[in-house]
Amino acid sequence: DAGVTQSPTHLIKTRGQQVTLRCSPKSGHDTVSWYQQALGQGPQFIFQYYEEEERQRGNFPDRFSGHQFPNYSSELNVNALLLGDSALYLCASSFGDRVNSPLHFGNGTRLTVT
Amino acid sequence: AQSVTQPDIHITVSEGASLELRCNYSYGATPYLFWYVQSPGQGLQLLLKYFSGDTLVQGIKGFEAEFKRSQSSFNLRKPSVHWSDAAEYFCAVGVRITTGRAQKLVFGQGTRLTINP
Fold first, then answer.
1. How many CA atoms within 13 Å lie on the side-chain side of B11?
2. How many domains are contained in chain B?
3. Radius of gyration of chain A measured on its C-alpha atoms
């Protein structure tokens, strides 16, 4: 049973470029959340997708957008990259509308902006 | 607003010694609390969670945590650490997403654990 898978594992981009990160949730999960983890910090919530809609967003600008597909997989897009966008981007999946539905995390995509 | 504070950025203990990692939270309702561990270059693995009931919860890898409402704390403990426990540890509070599913997590800054042989 595959867990949460993310691609690519590493990415190097230049300021001003755009990037797309991908996530496949754990089998049986229907909800995907994205987190940004800057170096030496705890992860910060970006947004959550359920039923192909963005349900809640954290304190991130509109340059960060996402999408969820009918098979529950998800993409995170970041436009007009800034140096400060360099971070580990984590995808987490879950199932159920109860708060005690645990989140399962992928290994992340390491994005470096130069 | 919800927040989590982990006062210790870095802790070093000797192999076989006991361990306690501190976590304090700020949340207006009944908290749902979690401890995650992250090895270098890896994602987050859930160690244990508290939702309700017994305030002492057991997790994987021999870890336990105690919820103390009066102190707004959820400290992680292990009686005897192993070299493989060296990692980054994150405490988190779950905040219900009213328009979505499950919850979002608000994380602390993390505590890096180093084990001396």
1. 23
2. 1
3. 13
Number of cross-chain residue pairs from A and B with Cβ atoms under 8 Å apart: 88
**Do B46 and A94 lie within an 8 Å CB cutoff?**
no
Chosen for mutation from B44, B93, B98, B109 (greatest number of chain A CBs closer than 10 Å) is: B44
Structure-model confidence comparison of residues A25 and A102, the more confident one: A25
* Contact criterion met (CB < 8 Å) for B102 and A105: no
Put simply, whether A75 touches B (Cβ < 8 Å) is no
**Residue B56 structural domain:** 3-116
CATH classification of the domain holding B58? 2.60.40.10
Give me chain A's average pLDDT, please.
Answer: 93
DSSP sequence for A61-97: -TTEEEEE-TTS-EEEEE-S--GGG-EEEEEEEE-SS
Residue A98 is predicted with a pLDDT of: 62
CATH classification at residue A101: 2.60.40.10
For chain A, what is the domain count? 1
Average pLDDT for chain B:
92
Q: Which domain holds residue A41?
A: 5-113
End-to-end Cα, chain A, rounded Å: 37
